[in-house]
Design goal:
The protein is α/β, with parallel strands linked by helices. 42% of the residues lie in helices and 13% in strands.
Length: 184
């Protein structure tokens, strides 16, 4: 499992390093509790955004594999809340993409993987794209729910999936979600 973790960190760090300079990043991890690092208004300058990107890269490189509770539902709730806040404070017109990368099942919420899918659909209903990446056979429950979904069994496949994160969804790609799809 640790070799896969190193592969995932290396692929993600490479993608993040090559992403456009003007992007803003938020990182949500959950080794013991949810750790969140969101860019603040003072990071809107090119220098501030570059420094923030470097901090996120350092956090990715320093992240450790764990076998504790996987709290994807909580992470998605935080992402939705922060995007709502950002839209209210800065601009309702920014494009928001949530990259949900997992090599596990939801274990921190009694709703399990169904809770993850419900939250993905709620994000999509708010015009937030969700890119799901299932690593090493875990996370396929996102397929058909996420805006875009990729499976990766190794570092090269993960890099290929990450390279599609920036892509605009095609015009025939449905982002609207009906009440029926949201479920209870």
């Amino acid at each position: 499992a640790f070799a896969e973790w190193r592969q995932a960190k290396a692929a993600f760090a490479k993608w993040l390093s090559s992403a456009p300079a003007g992007y803003r990043y938020s990182l949500i991890t959950f080794p013991r509790k949810l750790n969140v690092d969101f860019p603040k208004p003072d990071k809107s300058s090119p220098e501030g955004l570059a420094a923030h990107k470097q901090r996120v890269l350092a956090a990715v490189r320093a992240a450790r594999a764990h076998s504790r509770t996987t709290t994807l539902c909580d992470g998605l709730d935080i992402a939705q809340s922060e995007i709502r806040r950002r839209r209210k404070e800065y601009s309702p017109y920014e494009r928001h993409v949530v990259l949900l990368f997992t090599d596990g099942q939801e274990t921190g919420n009694s709703e399990g993987n169904d809770g993850v899918k419900r939250r993905i659909l709620k994000l999509r209903r708010e015009q937030i794209e969700v890119v799901g990446i299932a690593f090493h056979g875990e996370g396929d429950y996102m397929n058909g729910t996420a805006t875009r979904f990729f499976e990766a069994g190794n570092q090269a496949e993960l890099a290929a999936g990450l390279s599609q994160v920036d892509a605009e969804p095609g015009t025939d790609h449905e982002i609207e979600v009906s009440e029926a799809e949201l479920g209870p």
